[in-house]
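Quick bug: Ribonuclease P protein subunit p29 output formatted oddly.
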Amino acid sequence: LQPQGSEEAEASVHAVLKRSMPQMKGEAIQDMLTRKALVLEHYPKKKAKQKRKKVKGFTAKQRRELRLFEIEPEQQRYAIFLPLHELWKQYIRDLCHGLKPDAQPHMIQSKLLKADLHGAIVTVTKSKCPSYVGITGIILQEFKHVFKIITKEDKLKVVPKLNSVFSLETDGFISYIYGSKFLLRASERSAKKFKLKGTIDL
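Here's what came back:
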């Protein structure tokens, strides 16, 4: 049984082939329809590639103007950042695989040199500027040249790294940070190789 309309369909196909291939005879066309399959190719339109626009960040000047890194006065309270210090201590314990009494001091020192210090409690033990000596508090921000420290008196201190020595105590381990050898951003320290030995001057 042939479906209705098959004769009309066959006639239309013959007509299309005769128009597109006038040099072929009717027998040749019939042979093509009997023995070969017709492939109707479809070429999809190429979509134009949209160029991705690079998102430009703020410049250093724009960040300063927008005061992105400024800590509001009402937020400058030591108690607010004590939970941050507790998180930092756990972070250091995990980083050093547990601060056990038999841990090697040089191993802990090498880990601390590359660690993130936001949340650490530090004390300025030496400085060429006597007014900085004795400042103790939680590091809130670290920049290339300075630490911003919040003290127990809820005062935000900006202490230069240059010509300063900071002590840092963690579970009984005391480490010293020589700021003059530490003039890097926090993100740059993780990739830097530090020498544990050498001459150290203020």
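Actually, after a second look the formatting is fine. Residues 74-191 form a domain with the SH3 type barrels. fold (CATH 2.30.30.210). Closing.
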